[in-house]
Amino acid sequence: MKRLTIFLLLLSSISYSQSLKNKLQGEWVCTRILDSNGNTTSGKFGSSDEYLKFNFAKGNLFITKAPFDMGIKMPIKFGNDYIDLFPQAVYQLPERKYTVNSINDDSLVFITNNNNGENIYYHFINQQRLLKSISNNHITIDEGLIIIKHLKLSKGANRVSGYQISNKPENLYPSPIFNDKASATFGDYFSINFTFPKTYKPDTISDELIIDFDVTDKGVQNIKMIQGLNDEINASVIQIIEKTNNKWHPLKIDGQVINTTLRFHFVFFSGIQNLGINFKN
Question: In terms of DSSP bridges, do strands 46-47 and 119-126 run parallel, antiparallel, or are they unpaired?
C-alpha cells in the first residue's frame, strides 16, 4: 500500500509538471519587471524597459534580448509550479527558480528572487495574441539600435556588439528570425563581418545609420539606406545585409509568410577605450 501511495504521488507530480510544460510552450515577451511594491526594477536578464523574450520549445528555454535573434538555449527543469534555469547547479543562485504567479493563454507572471533575496515579478504576454492582431500580409518593424564596437585590446574578443531595444508595444510583435550557426546573434555576425575604413577617426562614436530591408520567403530584398554615414561605410553595411540573404526565417502566421520590412539603427565605435554608449532608441 505504501509503495502504491508513493507511486501515485510521483505520477501526480509528473502530470503537474507536464501540464506546466505544455502551458508554457511558445514565445512570451516581457512587458515589465516589478518589485514587491509594484515599482519598475531590473532583473538578471535586463531592466523593466528593455526587450526580453522567453521562448519555450519542448524541454528547452531560449532567452533573447532582441526580437530577431534565436536566443541562448538553456535545458531547464519543470516543477509543479516553477521552472529551474540551472537544475545542475549545486548552490541556490539568484534568479535560478521562477515560480508561476499566474498564467493563462495570453499572459504570464513569474516570481523569482534577485541578488538581495527580494521578490521580483516578470510580466509576460504571449506573442500568439499579438499575431492575431496582424491583419495584412506586410508589416514594418523598427528593430531598435545595434552598437558595433571594435576595441583594440591585447587579449580577448575585440569585435563586440550591443543592443538597445525597448519593450514598447511596437517592438513586441513577432519578427523574422536571424539564424547563423557560426554566430550567436545578428549583432555578433555584423560586428565580425564589418570593417572600419582606414580613415575612421578612433575613439569616436559615429552618427546614427538607418537601413531598411524586406524579409520574404525569397530572402532579403529591397535594401534601402535611409540615413547613411559615408560611401565606404554605407557600402559595407549593405554588403553585409546582402550576405545574410539565406540566414533569415520569414515571419509566418498559420503557415502563411508575412512579408516584413525591418528597420535597423546602427552606431559604430572603434578605439582603445571601451567607452560606455548609453543611447536610448
Answer: unpaired
